[in-house]
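User: My collaborator sent over this chain with a note saying "see what the structure looks like." That's all I know about it. Can you take a look?
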Amino acid sequence: MFLLEPFSTAFLLRALVGGVLVAALCGVVGTWVVVRGAAFLGEAMAHGVLPGVATAALLGLPPVLGAAVSASVMTAGVSIASRRSRVSPDTAIGLLYVALLSLGVVIVSRSRSFATDLTAVLFGDVLAIDAGDLVFLAVALAVAVAVVVAFHRPFVALAFDPRVARTSGLRPQLAQVVLIGLVTLVVVASYQAVGSLLVVGLLLGPAVASGHWMRRIPSTMLLAAALGAVAVVVGLLVSWHASTAAGASIAFVAVALTAVSAAVRATATRLRRPSSTSDAHGAPDAPGAPDAHDAPGASTALPAPTPKETVHP
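Assistant: Without extra context I'll predict from the sequence alone. Here is the result:
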């Protein structure tokens, strides 16, 4: 088939496999980022890896090592600032984000030969993914799934109400730190494919699009991963046939899926509106929101939260 012919080449096939792994990783973690209303955290983490990557590149070290160190510094800084000062987590994230991004630009400005490497860091080079990158992405995905399964109840409690989580002994502060760590893992593992600037598109876009159709957290994650994989396939095909940047094409399609999903959902709702029964039972109560069965003490019928309550518990 003419459209799928590009995937017969080895480097594009590796890009496809790597992109699908990134999409699955972003779908799993991005669902909780959207439910928790932590989109700014994802963007800040994506930009905050710049100084570590820049330093590693200048010293001849693996860029992923520098990204991990930089992201870990930001994770620790956010946790310490939110616990030991009156600064809100969002404010702490914003301050650290600006500080690390500025430091990265300062480091880059000291090297006249860093422009090409910086472009790869910011926008990725999915076509350069090799076998080692695929193994790293597969391990990162396995770790993310294991952590999400282990912390499912604390994450759900944190999304409903941190006070309920605290009184239930589910340690919401630890859950918040673990969520930050998962976002860090996604950024570090994915920047090779789509870059630190564009990883946010895959992290948020498919999860938001999936939330228009799903109510349960596991099903939202699965659909988000599938939509992310669609974005990878379409983005790579657009890049091949239109000679556009592969990472940027993937990220744009991922975000575009959000608009398409919202439009289709709105159309479906309008078509079902004449029946009052459809209005009452046809649409999910809250896009991407955890339902009563996901909540702590699932045997009790807890009302599903509204989108506002879910995003800002």
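A starting point for your reply to your collaborator: The radius of gyration is 20 Å.
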